[in-house]
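Q: Convert this sequence to structure tokens.
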Amino acid sequence: MSTTNTVSNSPKILQLLKPLVTNIQFYWFLGHVATVTFSVLHSLTSLFKAAYSPTPLRFYRWALVAIIFSYLIVLRQSYKNKKSLPFQLLVNRDFLLHDFLKNDNVQYLLFALSLLLFTTNANPNRGPIPLQGALYSFTIFSTFHALNYFNNNLNKSNARLLDWIKNFQAQFSEKSHYICATAEAMILLQMITIVPRTLILLVFRWQVLNAAKHLIVVLSYVVFIKLRYEQNAVTKTVIDGYVLKVDTLLSAPQLAVIPVQVKNFWFVTVKGLVRKYIGPIRLPQSKPGKKEM
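A:
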């Protein structure tokens, strides 16, 4: 009986999919489904094996490929009316700085590319290994995008499922932005461990290429999170909140036993370095009277 139902439903499924497969948005949807699938598999397999062992690493790479695929489709749709886009990026500085690089999708795409190129090493001694948590925000975004597409294009008869997805989106959509921003900010903890490793590789082992890979990962993350901080109110709120917690903790009278050197390291050294080297990282403001493209 189940076989008969499957056969009878096949024409309906094909009829439903036929107009969709000719639209690029369908492949955008598949990219998000693949992102969620491979990211979950990476997380699950990482529970039992090191993140850079063959199986988790394979899923990590596939997830990043799916992420990049989805963002390329988005950018293709966003700039499909822009003739000779690669040429424009080379010769039109205003377009590059005031439009293209300010696009959230471009920033996430470039960050995903840096992860794919430089954090997929199977040997920690040959380059940066997968960053724990780096896929979280991508996975959350993809989950909501995939559910939205499914509800609007594939779920034609199940009203109960339709309502459940709508309620899920309404309940968790805003919260998900804070979760994503927190996950992105928490990658900083891994960056802190990468910096001394980079210095060791360069100064004591003379592994210039390996050190360069680590440095590129750090720089790409710093630029990415700084631009998110400048452009996204949620990211700014999350990071400012953590900074305030550290400030409050170190300034609390009941914690006067904390050595002055520790307090000075945070308030003077760390904040001074951030102001000097990270503060200037920002895209130029739009020119007055110039309409954004």
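The longest helix spans residues 159-203.
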